[in-house]
Model the fold of this input.
Amino acid sequence: MPLSDDQQSEIATLRTSPQSTLRAVSPGMEKHLYTAHEVLDHGFVRVVDYMGDDAAIVQAARVSYGAGTKKSRDDSGLIRYLMRHWHSTPFEMCEVKLHVKLPVFVARQWIRHRTANVNEYSARYSILDREFYIPAPENLAAQSTVNNQGRGEVLTGDEAARVLEILKTDAGRSYDNYEAMLNQEGQKGLARELARMNLPANIYTQWYWKVDLHNLFHFLRLRADEHAQYEIRVYAETICDIVADWVPAAYGAFEDYRLGGVNLSAKALDCVRRMLKGEDVTQETSGMSKGEWREFEATIA
Ligand SMILES: Cc1cc2nc3c(=O)[nH]c(=O)nc-3n(C[C@H](O)[C@H](O)[C@H](O)COP(=O)(O)OP(=O)(O)OC[C@H]3O[C@@H](n4cnc5c(N)ncnc54)[C@H](O)[C@@H]3O)c2cc1C
Done:
């Protein structure tokens, strides 16, 4: 169960107690506020608070560019211009605070994004729940033979069953021993901060994660990418859907220039120009390494 009873009743209370405000409100984000979106088997993402909307980005940009921009571009055109030219600070005017429940090994990748504010559930203070991420059978992939940092075919049959059994039994046994070591009646009990070291990396943790839109886009570009590990990518994709409702114009520009766009090196750009003039460019004549050429071909294919 991703949400505890307490969390569910808190969300229900918050969603039925609207308050009037003079602050900017994004109608698309209001529908997400507090509600949990389930991710993986026990995880979720939910918006706890947010600041700003598309208009806040435009408003900040017009402070620096002046009212003249109003005549030459409409709001979404200005947002696209800012995104295209890497003008980051207007996007920093919007912020979002998320409550995320995620497996510890996903949290380890996530925490590498240093430009956010984080407050995590304390396993020194509290006892972690018996909740582990066990991949769905279709996500039980073998090690990739071509990419050391990736997955290959999905495991099937006896091998899949054996792996799932190992994951479940080991997690259950570790948790049983965690509980047995904790402070219980009739024994001194090991401190929570020490007992937790026996827990596996697929146990769930929770945190509040606050980030501005510029740095959130950076996170999403890396983690919603097909090269990101599936287990963090599904969180990033859920957040993408939320952001698309929150700041539709900014998200549209992000999708176009960052998620769906590519950066070309000077050599790659030169190749494109030569190809457009009808030249049959090959890896040997491109000036690129084999790896660069392979990626370039995949990009323009
Ligand atoms: C597919 C994939 C594979 C990865 N594999 C590995 C791996 O094998 N091993 C590994 O260790 N990591 C790995 N990472 C993590 C990666 O190297 C980054 O640490 C992570 O993506 C966070 O990126 P970031 O530093 O740009 O983000 P943030 O920390 O959010 O920073 C955003 C930007 O702010 C600036 N910035 C932030 N802090 C500083 C600072 N202290 N000094 C200067 N500039 C700063 C930088 O411009 C940075 O790009 C991987 C990431 C991905 C997406």
Notes: Strands lie at 36-39, 43-51, 95-103, 117-120, 141-143, 151-154, 204-212. The chain has three domains: 1-133+202-261, 134-200, 263-301. The longest strand covers residues 43-51. Residues 112-115, 215, 218, 222, 227-228 surround flavin-adenine dinucleotide (CB under 6 Å).
